[in-house]
Design goal:
Blueprint: E1 2-5, E2 14-15, E3 39-42, E4 45-48, E5 59-64, E6 69-77, E7 88-92, E8 105-111, E9 118-128, H1 131-137, E10 144-150, E11 155-161, E12 167-178, H2 185-189, E13 191-198, E14 201-208, E15 217-227
Length: 228
């Protein structure tokens, strides 16, 4: 199942859930034609545990275009057994009057209303653009994203904070499985994440079982949103 996401200018999170669409929707124009020169980029399978308490967005992952490319479309894929409404996926962009054409990437945020962990694969379409370098230099890429590879059978704690003179507004965490097929329910249960904000820092402790990262790359993303 692939779901189309095409959004208006973003200052806040907006979400659109559309009927199943054809492959490579992220590189299609609004009339369904392919965008010439568009390159499709897939993220990993993002673990999305059930929503609990303040953990509204259980699955979070940022996918970026290559340098000097700009975002022109987004899409996401779920395992074939999921039904419409099993996952609600949103994207987030930053900066005044941001449109796909001048953004270097997108942050995908998923809500899981079910009782079992799910996963989804985010995708973006990118085109060459000289405006992207300026957008990056101007500091539009927020939140700052830190990625750590995970190893099986380990417990590790990662801490990230804002730069001097900045205040931590919000932070989120995501776990991605880099593999062709979606992770099994057992693999999803094999990674436990404890995310906290304390004294201006994001503190994330990850515990992995024996199967998490044994035959594929599994990574943690921490997203820190800061304000001067």
């Amino acid at each position: 199942m692939r779901m189309l996401l095409r959004l208006l200018p973003l200052l806040v999170v907006l979400g659109v859930v559309a009927p199943p669409a054809a492959a490579e929707v992220e590189c299609q124009d609004m009339d369904g034609s392919q965008i010439s020169g568009c390159v499709s980029t897939d993220g990993p399978w993002v673990s999305t545990p059930p929503r609990t308490g303040d953990n509204q967005y259980a699955g979070v992952w940022e996918v970026d275009c290559q340098p000097n490319q700009a975002l022109v479309g987004t899409d996401w894929t779920t395992p074939s057994f999921l039904q419409l409404g099993d996952l609600l996926v949103y994207i987030q962009q930053f900066g005044a009057q941001r449109l796909f054409g001048d953004a270097p990437g997108a942050l995908f945020l998923a809500v899981n209303p079910k009782t079992a962990a799910r996963s989804f694969m985010p995708s973006i379409g990118c085109l060459p653009s000289s405006a992207t370098a300026g957008a990056r230099a101007a500091g539009f890429r927020a939140p700052r994203t830190f990625t750590h590879n995970l190893r099986p059978g380990r417990e590790a704690t990662h801490r990230h904070r804002c730069r001097r003179g900045e205040r931590l507004v919000h932070s989120t965490t995501g776990v991605g499985f880099f593999k062709e097929q979606p992770p099994s329910a057992r693999e999803l249960r094999d990674v436990e994440v404890d995310h906290r904000q304390r004294r201006g820092r994001a503190i994330v402790t990850v515990t992995t079982g024996r199967r998490a990262g044994d035959n594929e790359r599994v990574a943690l993303q921490i997203h820190v949103t800061c304000r001067r």
